[in-house]
Amino acid sequence: MPLTVLLGGARSGKSSLAVARARALAAPVVFIATAEALDAEMEERVAHHRAERDAAWTTVEEPLHPERALAAVPPQACVVLDCLSLWVANLIQRDIPEEELVRRSRQAAVEAAVRPGLTIVVSNEVGMGVVPEFELGRSYRDALGRVNAAWAAEAQEALLVVAGRTLELGATR
Prior knowledge:
By secondary structure, the chain is α/β, with parallel strands linked by helices. It has helices at residues 14-23, 40-52, 66-71, 84-93, 98-113, 135-154; strands at 3-8, 29-33, 58-61, 78-82, 119-124, 157-162, 165-168.
């Protein structure tokens, strides 16, 4: 089955689309969540996303090593990995060098692309706006851009989600 990457801005409908696509399959679903609810606002966001998921799905909360969680999923299961942007932020906050997080991303993307079951990966596209004023913001934008590119390069399908609508992104191969 293919690897699908859903990219877009905040609240663009990426996660809802990922859930809808997973729900449409007859396969079991494993949802790998990378969010860390470190404050009340994030707790509310996490609760909202949990409420969207089917109760029969398996949820794995893995903010630092979603690639390990992905490797442990049964081959025929559908995986929803939501999201790369929070994963990258989690690693940057722990001073993981960009080269290391991009290397881990490339390896995980290659493994996801050859899984028999569908893998749907969600990530924010943060590189289309203004250049961040602070170094941390620029570093995050650059690292996430490289991570997104690594996943999209391995994907059979990459979509840009804007206002709940999708645009297919052409292949680079």
